[in-house]
Amino acid sequence: MRALVLLSVLFLLAACDNNNEVGDVSLGLFTTKDIKLDSLTDPIVSGVTCHISSIEADLSLSDPSDSSIACRQTGDITKAMIAAIDKTDSGEVVFKKSKSVFFKNMKVRRIYDSESQTLMYVSYSTKETTGSFKHSLSTVPLWGTQAYEFR
Questions:
Q1: Left (φ > 0), alpha (ψ -120 to 50) or beta: where does 6 sit?
Q2: Tell me, what's the pLDDT at 91?
Q3: What's the rounded Cα separation, in Å, for the pair 5 and 134?
Q4: 144 with 113: CB under 8 angstroms?
Q5: Element (H, E) at 3
Q6: Ramachandran region of residue 103, left (φ > 0), alpha (ψ -120 to 50) or beta?
Q7: Is residue 105 part of a domain?
């Protein structure tokens, strides 16, 4: 009975649709792992789009923690947008994706570097893997945008 319940839960998790997914690359015929590509538009700084790649293991209770991120300016970035973001050293989470039934998540956090007037986006896993927290960083400078302040 437990096995049937577990299989049902796994099937439902596998059937969940990810609205942010824009690509799916198979890693081969004899593996159950794929590279999933997600697109994220920053909810406050809507002129920034990030693309995140991560491994998804279809028949596993936990996906690998590796991820990669690339963020670019894809629209206007205004002073009002920058005024509305969290400017603390830890920034704020702008994206979260479950990577395990055991509470492991991949998150993307936006942090503002006021000295260089640059938005930093870091993707990271919330669980340690082989002695390391996996992470990746991408930056979007405000130079050339309406939000850039000449000093």
A1: alpha
A2: 98
A3: 32
A4: no
A5: helix 2-15
A6: left
A7: yes
Give me the count of residues in the chain: 151
Q: What is the pLDDT of residues 52-92, one digit of tens each?
A: 998 776 655 545 567 899 999 999 999 999 999 999 999 99
pTM recorded for the entire structure? 0.78
Distance, CA of 59 to chain centre: 22
* DSSP symbol at 80: H
Q: Are 60 and 32 contacting, i.e. CB atoms less than 8 angstroms apart?
A: yes
Given a cut of 50, the residues of the chain with pLDDT beneath it are 2-17, 62
Q: Is 94 among the domain residues?
A: yes
In a domain, 70, yes or no: yes
User: 112 with 87: CB under 8 angstroms?
Assistant: yes
The residue behind tokens 């577990």 is: 6
